[in-house]
Amino acid sequence: MSQTSPSSTHNLRADGARLWATIHETARFGGTPKGGINRLTLSAEDGQVRDWFREACEAAGLTVGVDALGTQYALRPGQDMSLPPVAFGSHLDTQPTGGKFDGVLGVLAGLEVMRTLNDAGIGTRAPLLLVNWTNEEGSRFAPAMMASAAYAGDFTTDEILAKRDAAGTTVAEALDAIGYRGGEAVGERAIGAFVELHIEQGPILEAEGKTIGVVEGGQGIAWFDGRIEGFESHAGTTPMPRRRDALLGLSEFALAVERIALAHGPSAVATIGEATILAPSRNVVPGQVAFTLDMRDPRSATLDAMEAELREAAAEIGGRRRMTLALSRIWRKEPVPFDAGVVAAVEAAAEGLGLSRRRIVSGAGHDACNLAGRVPTAMIFVPCKDGVSHNESESATQGDCAAGADVLLQTVLRLAG
Ligand code: HGY
Ligand code: MN
Ligand code: MN
Ligand code: MN
Question: Where in this chain does the record put each Peptidase M20 dimerisation domain (predicted)?
């Protein structure tokens, strides 16, 4: 295998058609009739795509390891194995109404980078490491990005293994059910730098006609579990003024959430993504409601201010409607800046490829946002249609995916030497 040299690799390009075919080949695991993907973390479908990923990596000559939280690491040796690997990747789990590109593009473009280097017979000084992080989405087990958070030391492995989904299944049980509770200790694997390619999941690149987002960091995120205790009563005999209807309490609180986010706009966003009437019945006034709240902004102080205002609103609504609205914060991820050196490598790669680009901050959370706390990290964005994601209609173009893979390839070559 020849040594990398800028001239020998400057014109190296990924095989965009092969990447496109791979994206569509794996979309069958959890594929939905509407053309999306429903592949919740550690589901049977996730197990199938993990098996596919391991076989594809091994066919590319990579050595695949699995850690105690199921994260898959595919290693390509370098000339100097004493150097920590340059890592890249993302996640293969999806939302229930997921699309073909969220997370998947970053993992499969990473596989395409390995395949392209193999085809060209090019070696790198540092080893390369392709990573599929477990449970980036956080839909089945909270919080999101949990395996990369454990790798970064934000949670212990045991804390994560004990997390339960709505059915009461633990992460440990779910890993065992698909045979992906690996032997490696989480966080033990050295990583010298990390680069994640991802669709933007927002409208900016498409609106400005830019192909590449040079991502400078990720915004802050706060997750809450909410609980409203009103009072069940007869739907036919309880006069309206005497009701303590928990669903109406939530309805008012939801409008307060929207008002507070708008007041801190344009960057602040807040979402009640789950809501459940407990012991539901069509002829009982709802007495108990459980819900979730996701709140984000690039500024930590704004997250603090929004939380205080939300708690005030909850107390005011609860007092007036004679019910309790309890908010417990279960996760807070501070806004994170990416490494200036790796960001510059991404920018230089995009420039060298003659691709239109702009600096951007990520509205979505990513595994890179956790890695950034431990290793030099940056991200590459490509546009997605109408900025839509976490929706089965999510789509991107073959050309943009190929351009993203080329930026990833050239960035990795710059970092790995
Ligand atoms: O929630 C997020 O931002 C990520 O897509 N899981
Ligand atoms: Mn993602
Ligand atoms: Mn996502
Ligand atoms: Mn991600």
Answer: 219-318
Q: Which atom of ligand 1 is nearest to the CA of 145?
A: 6
* Shared-domain flag, residues 61 and 149: yes
Q: Ligand 1: which of 91, 201, 384 to mutate, most ligand atoms within 8 Å of CB? A: 201
Q: How far away, in angstroms, is 98 Cα from ligand 3 center?
A: 8
Instruction: Express each pLDDT in 236-259 by its tens digit.
Output: 999 999 999 999 999 999 999 999
Same domain, 140 and 225: no
Q: Number of structural domains, the chain?
A: 2
Phi–psi pair at 241, nearest 5 degrees: -65, -15
From ligand 3's centre to the CA of 91, what distance in Å? Answer: 9
In-domain check, residue 160? yes
Residue 306's contacts (CB-CB under 8 Å, 6 or more residues apart) are: 260, 261, 264, 268, 270, 295, 297
- Taking only the tens place, the pLDDT of each residue in 15-62 is 999 999 999 999 999 999 999 999 999 999 999 999 999 999 999 999
Q: Evaluate: CB of 144 within 6 angstroms of ligand 1.
A: yes
Closest atom of ligand 1 relative to the 363 alpha carbon = 3
pLDDT value at position 220? 97
Query: Nearest ligand, CA of residue 196?
Result: 4
Can you tell me whether residue 12 is helix, strand or coil?
Answer: coil
Ligand 1 centre distance from Cα of residue 141 (Å):
13
pLDDT at 3 over 70: no
Whether the CA torsion 233, 239, 242, 243 is positive or negative: it is positive
Is residue 405 domain-resident? yes
ipTM, two decimals, is 0.92
Q: Which atom of ligand 1 is nearest to the CA of 136?
A: 6
For residue 238, the enclosing domain spans: 221-333
pLDDT band at 9 (very low <50, low <70, confident <90, very high): confident
For the chain, helix, strand, coil in percent to 5 are 35, 25, 40
